[in-house]
Each structure stands twice: as structure tokens, then as C-alpha cells.
Amino acid sequence: KYFFLMFPLAMFPLIMIKSTCTPVPRVIWVLPENVVLPAPYYGAGMTVHRNGTLDIQSLKVTDAAFLTCIAQNEGGEAKLIIQLDVLDTIEKPRLRSPKMESLSLTVGRTLTLNCSVEGSPAPQVTWVLPGGTALMSGSRFTKFFHKTDGTLVISNPALSEAGNYRCLGLVLSPGRKPEINNRYNSPVSIISGESLQLHCLSASDPVHLTWTLPSGVVLNRPQRAGRYTVLQNGTLSIQQASVYDRGSYTCRTANEYGSSLLTISVIIIAYPPRITSSPAATTYARRGVAVQLNCVVVGIPKAEVAWETPDRTRLIVSPQPRLFGNKYLHPQGSLIIQNPMPKDTGFYRCTARNVVYEVLLNLSIKA
User: Fold this and answer.
1) Which segments constitute the Ig-like domain (predicted)?
2) Last residue in a domain, options 87, 121, 146
3) Three-state SS across the chain?
């Protein structure tokens, strides 16, 4: 038979096994590492009574194990396996200070925010700033310093520091591997060129946290490597993501009791540029009549569009209209030649390029 038993930490459990065999069986307990205790047995912290009851004094987390009770007589043998799990005794954290408080901020004058939390074991205090940044005990961030006593100090504050500040108290269960609090149920999609944040939040501290990139590069916390930054709270920030950033990202949190993994698939949305509006391959110009060459492009990320004129001049399309002599460049990519002259005849090329691909459009103007 098999039983599963759970006891709170520091209790004195009695595991009683009653046998009704004739003749009366001999009872032994087999502990981890094949330690055998016969009945009766009287030891430090552990007793096996004459009736086969196992008595364990002052349970610890490390006492969790599989225990086997064996009863034997001339008729044979019976075995019972018990899985003993020891639960931690945890006291919910309580705020000593008011749950909500309103303070006045004076520009340039240091401001101190108090947060006193009690619990068992001692709670871990985290301050969450108005922008969402989490500061662990002893951490600094620009004007903010979270002291080890739970106090948040704001040096030389400006009006931009006004807002809601939250103080969180967490009681950590000793003897457990760190758990990752957030999950991603589907791949994360982002448009190429945008910034991305991947969260890996764990309540355990101290904890060793690493991110493994699709390329195999491993980043620790906190660390900056090019466009990648691992923030103090474990979040991985990727600036201006490109198609080369797609793939699987793995966050690993570890302490002396074990580790947890979080794998996130990232999809970078990108499409090659495509010219959707263009004139005929050859356009005939007449003096005094403007010529319009269209080169309207779509693509993700937005493509860079440029024109090359017969004299090899390169004109780059910008968000604002631009004028180059008698040539007017529209933000949507059209090149308008006002009052065309003989020197304006020849071959023109429109180029559209993004990180995915490059397309060309060759045109000519004839008199």
C-alpha cells in the first residue's frame, strides 16, 4: 500500500501502523539511505514504539522523504510505503504603516516614503514606481534608493516623480526552488523595429537569473549587451527588434534548492517592400508640363525609399516634402519634375529597402 502524508513544519507526527496478524509480526521502518529502525527503537528525535508507531520529533523540511514500514512473521511479509511531505509555517505579511497615504512633493527636496512590513519569516519588501519599475531592497534607480529597512528615498525630485507608489511585502517559503510568477501561453509577436520586453518575475530573493537568447548567448542580471538589457527585476528588454531576434528565449531562475525555466517564442513580423503605384516604364516630357513619377511602397518595417536621377544624384524620401532644384519629392515617394528641361531626360531609379528585402523600379524620361 501507499500513503501520502503532509505535516506542518515543527509538528510531532505519530505515524501509527496497526497489524492484526498471528503470530504477532516483527515491525521495522526503512528510512532514506536504507537506515533500518526496529520496533522498539529510541533515538534522538525519532522513536519506534513497541506497537510499530513511528514518532518523529521537531519536523524539518529536510525530513520529507519516502518511509517504508515492513511487518514480518513466519507467514510472510507486508509492506506499506508512506510519502512524508513537510509544509512550511508561514505568517502572512502585515503592514505596520497605513495602507494608503498621501504626501506632498516639493521640487528639489528629498522625499522619504516609509513602508514597514512584519511577518514570519521576515518579508521581502519591494517598491513599485509609478512607471511600473520594481525596486528590491538595497536597489538604486536614477533618483530612487530603496534602503534595506524598507524606506524609499527620492533625491532631488521633480514634478515628473509625482504619482502612485506601491509597497509590496512578500514572505518567502524557505527551502523551495524559485517559482516564475508569469507565463506566456502563446508566441509573442512584434513588428520589426519596435522594442520588446519579456518578463520573468520571481518572488524568490536572492535568486540567480539568466536569459538565454536564440543565438545561445547567456545574459545575467543586471546586464546590458548591445540592444539587449536584463533589468534588475528580471525583465529582458530588446531595443529595435529585427528579424534576427526571432526564436526562443529561455529565462532560468535558480537558488540552492533548484531551478525553474520559462521559454518564450518570439515572432518578428516583417514583410518585404512592394511598389503599389508606378508609372509606365517610359514617360515623355514636354516643356512647361510637370512630370510625376510615382513610387508608392508598402512594407513592414517601413521601407526607406530613394530616387536616383540621371546625373547619379540620390534623393531620399523623408516625412516632410523636399525640393531639389526643379524636383519636388513627396513624402509618399512620388518624384515631381516641374518645368522639365532637356537635362532632366534619362534614366531614373526608385529603390525601396527594409531589413527583409530591396526592390528596384527603373524608369526613363524622354523628350
Assistant:
1) 93-167, 178-265, 273-362
2) 87
3) CEEEEEEECCCCCEECCCCCCCCCCEEEEEEHHHEEEECCEEECCEEECCCCCEEECCCCHHHCEEEEEEEEECCEEEEEEEEEEEECCCEEEEECCCCCCCCCCCCCCCEEECCCEEEECCCEEEEECCCCCEECCCCEECCEEECCCCCEEECCCCHHHCCCCEEEEECCCCCCCCCECCCCCCCEEEECCCCEEECCCECCCCCEEEEECCCCCEEECCEEECCEEECCCCCEEECCCCHHHCEEEEEEEEECCEEEEEEEEEEEECEEEEEEECCCCEEECCCCCCEEECCEEEEECCCEEEEECCCCCEEECCCCCEEECCEEECCCCCEEECCCCHHHCEEEEEEEECCCCEEEEEEEEEC
Please say if the pLDDT value at position 298 is more than 90. yes
C-beta separation of 180 from 235 below 8 A = no
- Is 181 within the bounds of a domain? no
**Do 199 and 124 have their domain in common?**
no
Question: How many domains are there within the chain?
Answer: 4
Among 193, 188, 305, 299, CA closest to 251: 188
Instruction: Give the Cα separation of 320 and 322 in Å (integer).
Output: 6
How confident is the model over 264-278, as a mean pLDDT? 92
Phi-psi region of 33 (alpha: psi -120 to 50; beta: other; left: phi over 0): left
Is the pTM for the entire model greater than 0.85?
A: no
Q: Are residues 193 and 147 in the same domain?
A: no
Average pLDDT on 317-334 reads 94
Confidence at residue 186, expressed as pLDDT on a 0 to 100 scale: 82
